[in-house]
Amino acid sequence: MPKTTVRAGSNIAFIKYWGVADAAINLPLNSSISMTLADAHTTTTVEWDQSGRLAEDAITLDRQPLTGQAAARLARHLDRIRDLTGMTWRARVVSENNFPMAAGIASSASGFAALSVAGCLAAGLNLEPGALSALARLGSGSACRSLFGGFVLWDRGDDHETSIARPLFPPDHWDLYDVVAVVSRAAKTVSSEGGHRLAQTSALNACRVAQAEQALPLVRQAIAERDLAALGPILEQDALAMHAVMMTSTPGLFYWQPGTVEIIHAVRQWRTDGLEVYFTVDAGPNVHLMCAAEDAPAVQTCLAALASVQDVLVSRPGPGPLCSEDHLF
Ligand code: PMV
């Protein structure tokens, strides 16, 4: 069985996935749209142990052996591949992120995308892209979008087979930048996995879901026309609506830190001053600033002046998963 290495990019959603209709298969309440990132990615090497000597999956993440719940979550994903192939071998998995895991960039998206593709290929299982997207979704919902490059739509669907992502536009369609302002590196106290289950406890949830579905064709059109002035207000509104749902769930989730609010105010002021930049925030305190390529240096300069910004990461739209011969072991 060949050792297989795959690199997959993370993604940033313009219309968010928040809340599950069926938690067992990460069936979302609404469809979502994202951009796959070129400069924030996970590389994963998988080898199935045909000798049968390995008693359990041996997983190393960012040079540390993975244990406990995190290891169990990845082993469950490897079980899904074992179920598809009928094989019982354990796997050796080594995985590396090129960005700090707590930087507010979804490492689960790139991680489960890379693991799904590498795990299947290493097992000689050639699934078509839609089936790979569905498999990745079982690991982490947003991972199904990282199966494709550029600008991606995840159709909510009705079941495991139909809730899959597909590409809308390739990465070179629009040189849109994601400038990530890191305000905290602390690990989240509530994982997004847990948060999705709470969404329906918020009275605002049904409104957000309806608004998100209405916004999808507008976002798609704005991307088609490379129209940041049309896209920006919608992505800000959707991020704020998602955080309103989080804050008003039972128990309430509050991911923002003072730095989050400082940046949101600053972005609004920079826009008034003529810099075209918009914000979105995932399940964490860090803020993603979307702007045209030519404005990215100015956005970085503006961020450098804010006391709460600890670090800045910059990414362009990137490709879908890529195979590599540079194995990690
Ligand atoms: O795939 P998860 O369970 O990590 O959920 C991701 C949720 C958000 O990042 C907040 C939104 C999204 O659509 O990526």
Overview of this protein structure:
This protein folds into 2 domains: 4-171, Ribosomal Protein S5, domain 2 (2-Layer Sandwich); 173-315, GHMP kinase, C-terminal domain (Alpha-Beta Plaits). It has helices at residues 68-85, 107-122, 129-139, 192-198, 205-224, 228-247, 258-272, 296-304; strands at 4-15, 20-22, 27-28, 32-48, 58-61, 64-65, 91-97, 151-154, 165-169, 176-182, 277-281, 287-292, 311-315, 322-324. With 329 residues, the protein is α+β, with helices and mostly antiparallel strands. The chain starts with a strand and ends in a 5-residue tail after the last strand. The strands form 3 sheets. Strands 1, 4, 5, 6, 7, 8, 9 and 14 form an 8-stranded mixed sheet that branches. Strands 11-12-10-13 form a 4-stranded antiparallel sheet. The chain is 35% helix and 25% strand. Helix 5 (205-224) packs antiparallel against helix 6 (228-247). The protein is built from 8 helices and 14 strands. The structure holds (3R)-3-hydroxy-3-methyl-5-(phosphonooxy)pentanoic acid.
